């Protein structure tokens, strides 16, 4: 008689917040899968639901509480973790029947809570976990967390109080994880942390042995160089994209790696503002003129480089003069990708005590002005790519259907008529990180699949996206 395998308990996951929280969710799921659990795509099929919360802003906390409430209403057996887990009393006050509440990075506590709520069924016949772990992102790109915490004490941020000071991972461990991811199909590694440039400071930039021989120093430049030397099973060099890079002087040493093709010509730098007065109030570095000089030098050494950043408008004390300074700085900097946020007080942040809060209607008006300016700059930069051939990584391939059968398909606002009902595929250039930057929309993309690298002739552009055809 054939052995009937018992059904393992199933876990549902709701993951909120930034990519770092997404990595935490992946690690939790990997540990649970190793313990014999299956994953459930919905509430109804889950024996227990995990909600990985965000606590960075008050609006994020409210979103987390709403997600917890939905999970409680739809399932009722809920474990809460993540940044808002540090406010267990707030969560339990609203949801007294929560099974457990844990803080960020408390993987073992989360797993133990699930083990208690829905014990696994031991079974020796099942191969539970792929070597690279479980992922919530598509197979062809992966976030690679290199450290936790932050040594900065920015006035608007409570991350250090939630995640602590900088704690870097050993570079050899990071490289082992990256090798497994690439071997399993990852074509793009997105390096993340709270402060990528500070990586290794707490380890005193010590060197660690590599299993292949030699050693690697715990330093952003050395780690980036080693990541850029990895190869996919097909022999390609995976893209390596650096996020959350503070413009410390040693960042200049990464630019040659970009020029060599070891690292993507892309820097995600959280400038936050340009006015020296506001930067000082934010407790941020305030040498904005020197930054402009360095950006010019980076572009001279690596003309392909794309720079993205985020800015806060309406910070307490921000005058019209301060804001105009920011607009003028942005006009001169000509950044490729820009995100903006209206200042929002968050409980525990030092900025809450600053005088001269900016009225909400003024914040909104300044936000719109920033977005209009940066959209115009983006449109001009993307228009300059029309007629050029660029490298693109395919994210998804569309099913072709006539407009009468699928009127919601295609890009009706696309400049090129051929894209209205025949997009074919969507990907990203080297200048585009997933979710936060633009996309490249392809027509006549027959035979392509997610994870493919392809040369694309750019035909048209708008404020954020490119449109083209495989070259």
Automatic annotation (TrEMBL):
Domain Radical SAM core: 136-380
Catalytic activity: L-aspartate(89)-[ribosomal protein uS12]-hydrogen + (sulfur carrier)-SH + AH2 + 2 S-adenosyl-L-methionine = 3-methylsulfanyl-L-aspartate(89)-[ribosomal protein uS12]-hydrogen + (sulfur carrier)-H + 5'-deoxyadenosine + L-methionine + A + S-adenosyl-L-homocysteine + 2 H(+)
Localization annotation: Cytoplasm
Gene3D superfamilies on file: Methylthiotransferase, N-terminal domain, Nucleic acid-binding proteins, tm_1862 like domain
Sequence positions that bind [4Fe-4S] cluster 1: 18, 54, 83
GO cellular component, one term: cytosol
GO annotation terms (biological process): tRNA modification
InterPro entries: Elp3/MiaA/NifB-like_rSAM (IPR006638), Methylthiotransferase (IPR005839), Methylthiotransferase_CS (IPR020612), Methylthiotransferase_N (IPR013848), Methylthiotransferase_N_sf (IPR038135), NA-bd_OB-fold (IPR012340), Ribosomal_uS12_MeSTrfase_RimO (IPR005840), rSAM (IPR007197)
One function term, GO molecular function aspect: protein methylthiotransferase activity
Record's compositionally biased regions (Basic and acidic residues): 406-432
Cofactor(s) this protein requires: [4Fe-4S] cluster
Binding site for [4Fe-4S] cluster 2: 150, 154, 157
Keywords (A to Z) from UniProt: 4Fe-4S, Cytoplasm, Iron, Iron-sulfur, Metal-binding, Ribonucleoprotein, Ribosomal protein, S-adenosyl-L-methionine, Transferase
PROSITE patterns reported in the protein's UniProt record: MTTASE_N (PS51449), MTTASE_RADICAL (PS01278), RADICAL_SAM (PS51918)
Note describing how the cofactor binds: Binds 2 [4Fe-4S] clusters. One cluster is coordinated with 3 cysteines and an exchangeable S-adenosyl-L-methionine.
Region (Disordered): 401-432
EC numbers for this chain: 2.8.4.4
Residue span(s) of domain MTTase N-terminal: 9-119
PANTHER family linked: RIBOSOMAL PROTEIN S12 METHYLTHIOTRANSFERASE RIMO (PTHR43837), RIBOSOMAL PROTEIN US12 METHYLTHIOTRANSFERASE RIMO (PTHR43837:SF1)
Annotated family: Belongs to the methylthiotransferase family. RimO subfamily.
Its biological purpose: Catalyzes the methylthiolation of an aspartic acid residue of ribosomal protein uS12.
Cross-referenced NCBIfam families: 30S ribosomal protein S12 methylthiotransferase RimO, MiaB/RimO family radical SAM methylthiotransferase
Name the UniProt record assigns to this protein: Ribosomal protein uS12 methylthiotransferase RimO
Native source organism of the sequence: Sphingomonas edaphi
Gene from which this protein is expressed: rimO
